[in-house]
Write a structure and sequence with these properties.
single chain; 447 residues; alpha/beta; Amidase signature (AS) enzymes; 14 helices; 11 strands; globular
């Protein structure tokens, strides 16, 4: 598979030939179930698009039954930015329903397989994006990250996944899960490609009220030789498997060999992250999903009256995990529990952000695990609590609105990739990409 950087130099004729070959390769590998459909349109470099990002005239369903039949009437801002830069949306890729999951098993279209080992999950919710890139069925892809949904599947599939600072990439046209947490980001074969795609999709957008209005680019100033101070978190790894601990030690040695300064720091107990995240995310999800009632768009199940139509449509249209999170969100927002749960979660979120700011007062980056284990086998995270705990290392980044990048470090004895993440201070994507490129160069990961 050619890199994004190389693809941007191809002629229109070369690109069209490549896209025909790519489509044939996708059609020859249906068992992976990474793509929902392929739309070979436009002359640009083909980019796979997660099924919750609006592409005009495409069916866009967020992996859900309730949105079957919906056709997007407009482009998300990131899609306009892609086409303006000579790229084109190529295919719609699978995801957990409404981005609620860590394995891509909750999709209406069925599960996506891990391209390294078909018995294991590709991660979620951007599992289709990660599997497509990991299998060589996409040059690059767009995913969305609410609590790790770009970085975790990237780690499980042996690719690079980057979650930008909140507000750096427009959310206009992204199907919302939790509005204060969601960010679209690049999923690529290497760090430089991630920087290129990040530069293309990021920047100001008047259509998004949460957009930060910043347009600085990182690719022109990429510098793998820049010496940084990087914090490591020995105590933070107590719940991680030996595979993760071994990769962490390898990464530390690689960073030292590249001339970076390594210092030890402490993070607050991740159990507080889990609690604050799932209260916040489910509360916001409850509000965002209230619009899906079968009246304005998508699937409808006609009932005896209007109320019954709402009930039947939502009961049949949403999957179990989405229903579970709607129920939890309504509970924490209810009058008797709002102060006890939601307000406390917001206070905890502020403490988490302050903790990061204290660390970044004298360090440039933080090295952290992405997940407690390598990609689990299908069914191993069937209990909701097990799935929620698998996000233990990623969700604090979203709660604090920080940028982070996952990249492959090593493989375990079963040949499964082990990814780690670097985390930067808010709006310091330049340092994040510089450090990530340096680590990637020092590790020299072989697929």
């Amino acid at each position: 598979m050619i890199t994004l950087k190389k693809a941007l130099t191809l002629s229109t004729e070369e690109l069209n030939k490549f896209k025909d070959e790519l489509k044939a390769k996708i059609e020859a590998n249906p068992e992976l179930n990474a793509y929902i459909d392929v739309n070979n349109v436009g002359d640009g470099v083909p980019i796979a698009i997660k099924d919750n990002i609006q592409v005009k005239d495409w069916s866009v369903t967020s992996g859900s039954n309730i949105l079957q039949g919906y056709i997007a009437p407009y482009n998300a801002t990131v899609i306009d930015k892609l086409t303006n830069a000579g790229l084109s949306p190529f295919g719609r890729v699978n995801m957990d329903e409404f981005a609620m999951g860590s394995t891509t098993e909750s999709s209406f279209y069925g599960k996506t397989l891990n391209p390294i080992n078909a018995d294991r999950v590709p991660g979620g919710s951007s599992g289709g994006s990660a599997a497509a890139v990991g299998a060589g069925l996409a040059i690059a892809a767009l995913g969305s990250d609410t609590g790790g949904s770009i970085r975790q599947p990237a780690a499980f599939c042996g690719i690079v996944g980057m979650k930008p600072t909140y507000g750096r990439v427009s959310r206009y046209g992204l199907g919302a899960y939790a509005s204060s947490l969601d960010q679209i980001g690049p999923m690529t074969q290497n760090v430089e490609d991630a920087a290129i795609l990040y530069d293309i999709i990021s920047g100001s957008d008047e259509k998004d009220s949460t957009n930060a209005g910043r347009d600085e680019k990182v690719t022109p100033n990429l510098n793998a030789d820049r010496k940084l101070t990087i914090a490591v978190l020995p105590e933070y790894l107590k719940d991680a498997s030996q595979d993760i601990k071994d990769a962490y030690a390898k990464a530390i040695e690689a960073l030292k060999s590249a001339g970076h300064t390594i210092v030890e720091r402490e993070m607050m107990d991740a159990k507080f992250d889990i609690s604050a995240y799932y209260i916040t995310a489910t509360a916001e999800a409850t509000t965002n999903l209230a619009r899906y009632d079968g009246i304005r768009y998508g699937n409808r199940v006609d009932g005896k009256n209007l109320e019954d139509t709402f009930i039947q449509t939502r009961s049949n249209g949403f999957g179990d995990e989405v229903k579970r999170r709607i129920l939890l969100g309504n509970f924490v927002l209810s009058s008797g529990y709002y102060e006890a749960y939601y307000v406390k979660a917001q206070k905890t979120r502020h403490i988490i952000k302050d903790n990061f700011e204290r660390i970044f007062a004298d360090v440039d980056l933080i090295l952290s695990p992405v997940a407690p284990t390598v990609a689990p086998k299908f069914g191993e995270l069937s209990k909701p609590m097990d799935m929620y705990l698998s996000d233990i290392y990623t969700i604090s980044v979203n709660l604090a609105g920080l940028p982070a990048l996952s990249l492959p470090i090593s493989k375990n004895t079963d040949g499964m990739p082990v990814g780690l993440q670097l985390i930067a201070a808010a709006f310091d994507e330049q340092t994040l990409f510089d450090g990530s490129l340096s680590l990637e160069t020092a590790i020299n990961y072989q697929k």
